[in-house]
Amino acid sequence: MIILLLNFWGDIMLDVLKDSLLDLLKIVPFLFVAFLILEYIEHKMSKKNEMILVNNKKIGPIVGGVLGAFPQCGFSAMATKLFSSRVITLGTLIAVYLSTSDEMLPIMISEKVNILLLLKIIGFKVLVGIFIGLIVDLIYRNKDKETIKELCEHDHCSCEHDGIIISSIKHTLKIGLFILFANLLINIIIFNVGEENVSNLLMQGNVLTYFLSSIVGLIPNCAGSVIITELYLSNMISLGTLFAGLLTGSGLGILLLFRTNKNLKENIIVLSIIYFVGVIVGIIVDLII
């Protein structure tokens, strides 16, 4: 009996490890590209060109909102790293987080959801992301003058000696290992809690459903958006509950933010904005529709 239990647990852990590795592989290319961009700015661009890049950020939330709509978990991770290095604004980061489609788009396509409904959902998320991102950039003025070089020194790396490619690989491996261990822990927790139990909580049909859906959306891997999307397609939750969860679903972005951005207060602000936007928009959608 004990041997059977150990074998069963071993199979479970193997599946959890496999899922965690797959989640990591999805975002590694994006992380590598983000680090390449940062290294290029540091090594190749003059101070004048760097200032041009930094000072022309007014349309950042618009670009971020549109790009975030593509069904790729890794883009939010790349945006997070660029924000932590002060290449993009806080509003742009939030626009990406809110518009990120994660696994919602491929699931709905596979279920042959009406294309018009699909476009409306994506378009609405993009508009919310852009709108909130622009407001955040109007209100929030980032006074942190940390440069990419100072960030590199903070991480204790030797970018100048390694060159762009090697340095980017080192950074990607360093952050990738952190994400792997964190995601492994999250997958173990999800397995022990059970996706069915999470689903049951979301089907309560009261105002708490929006708060719970937004929390599920914050789960820093693709599991949250999968659960929420499947429940909606099964007519078990409302459209507002769907938006409450999908707007907060930024893949591994939030997790990476707390790892790479040393300003804890700023991270909490980002998390709070994402969460309450999801809840409020979800409630409004169900009141209107």
Span from first to last CA? 54 Å
Helix content: over 70%
| Average pLDDT | 77
Structural class: mainly alpha
Which ranges are low-confidence, i.e. pLDDT below 50, for 5 or more consecutive residues? Answer: none
The number of helical segments is 16
Morphology = globular
Main sheet overview: none
Give the strand tally: 0
What would you report as the Rg, rounded to the nearest angstrom?
20 Å
The number of domains is 1
What's this entry about, in short?
It contains 16 helices and no strands.
Write up what this structure looks like.
- By secondary structure, the protein is mostly helical.
- The protein has one domain.
- It has 16 helices and no strands.
- The protein is globular.
- The termini are far apart.
Key descriptive features of the protein:
289 residues, mainly alpha, globular
Write the layout of secondary structure elements.
Layout: H1 2-43, H2 47-55, H3 60-68, H4 73-84, H5 90-99, H6 104-110, H7 115-139, H8 148-154, H9 159-162, H10 164-193, H11 195-202, H12 208-217, H13 223-233, H14 239-248, H15 253-260, H16 264-288
Helix pairs in contact: 1-4, 1-10, 3-5, 3-7, 4-5, 4-15, 5-7, 5-16, 10-15, 12-14, 12-16, 13-14, 14-16
